[in-house]
């Protein structure tokens, strides 16, 4: 009996071992099948989560998968969705961080701007106008940020009026034609001075003497007599507009930038590094030269009233105060500019002035919040210059004066200037007496025009510069390797 029990026990043990082994084998087979199908299972679950808008779960699932190109793309889509949810929930700072982590995926960079705009709007709605002003200023060119920036300035001025009327006057006056700011400034001036005439009251508040008024009128008359965009220089070529609307060019023609002999009815010209642009009397635009970045794609432009070039871009000002552009740089900021009255540019920066003389720039280093009331502006890489009605010139670059000043704008040591032209090497300023002032970043780039008089137009370039005299002749100096300074026989427009 005992032997039988022992035999049964051994049999049960053998059965147990056999069953355990079978179970282990089965589990291994099932596990192997699962691991084989696991990527497909995870992918299916991740796709379902993504389609259902469960972005956090989708991100977790995609993160746990082998990062193939397809998985990586789906993971970005999930993270984009999560960032969008944060934005919709009003968590704009978190959303901005999430969009920033996406790099160049989809329109993530544009969404970053949307987040920053929303943060600025929150500050505006909460009454923190100073913060809103700074935030909208950093967004110049996006949506209506420029208008909202001025809204913030207007709100600051309105708050200030209750405690400091003089400061409020200055703030309203600086806003120029924005909203009813000019009227508000006049009302404050009349109240504080007791004068009935708004213009007289404003001049007293500004400290403008009769002598300065006469000076401004003199300079305005001198500026109005100057020819507009009759002379321009590129890297290695010079272009001039004749009185009959035809155009002449000298210098390198490596990319066809001097092929302008067939142009007619031209009212303005400008040059990029290797391309030339002309504005026709009917508001259309022509361009020749290097076009690898699309800087010459202007054939469909209409209603243009002014043109400007950077080295590899072309910019047009439309009659409604908006701006169009084409070329190397995306220049998304230009699309948001409005109420523009003047455009300029050089090297890699495009600049503009609003009708109130507010300086706009495609590049942060060329901006200045303080420039208001300017009448013309120009720029090059890293800085801008702005001409004021009293003939002084402001620049955003202390380096231009070999200075370490930390202010946003520096006054150049010039007086009675009626025209300015900036380049990567320095600035030319045309005086009312027909002579030229110059400032150069480096002495080796300096070009001397001190012996030339009766000048009515100037064009500064990186390697050479040119001036137009009252008799229609041109003087060009600097590098002449391609004959860009061979302009002695030219006769250009003088009005």
Explain this structure to me?
With 495 residues, the protein is of the alpha+beta class. The chain folds into two domains: 2-99, no CATH class; 229-478, 7 Propeller (Methylamine Dehydrogenase, Chain H). Helices cover 36% and strands 23% of the residues. It has helices spanning 2-51, 55-63, 69-88, 92-100, 108-125, 129-138, 145-161, 165-174, 181-193, 198-206, 210-224; strands spanning 231-233, 237-241, 247-251, 266-271, 275-280, 285-289, 304-310, 313-318, 323-327, 340-346, 349-354, 359-361, 376-380, 383-387, 393-395, 410-411, 417-422, 426-431, 436-440, 455-459, 464-469, 474-478. The protein is globular, with a radius of gyration of 33 Å. The mean pLDDT is 90.
Describe the secondary structure blueprint for this structure.
Layout (H helix, E strand, L loop, with lengths): L1 H50 L3 H9 L5 H20 L3 H9 L7 H18 L3 H10 L6 H17 L3 H10 L6 H13 L4 H9 L3 H15 L6 E3 L3 E5 L5 E5 L14 E6 L3 E6 L4 E5 L14 E7 L2 E6 L4 E5 L12 E7 L2 E6 L4 E3 L14 E5 L2 E5 L5 E3 L14 E2 L5 E6 L3 E6 L4 E5 L14 E5 L4 E6 L4 E5 L17
Antiparallel strand pairs: 1-2, 2-3, 4-5, 5-6, 7-8, 8-9, 10-11, 11-12, 13-14, 14-15, 15-16, 17-18, 18-19, 20-21, 21-22
Helix pairs in contact: 1-2, 2-3, 3-4, 4-5, 5-6, 6-7, 7-8, 8-9, 9-10
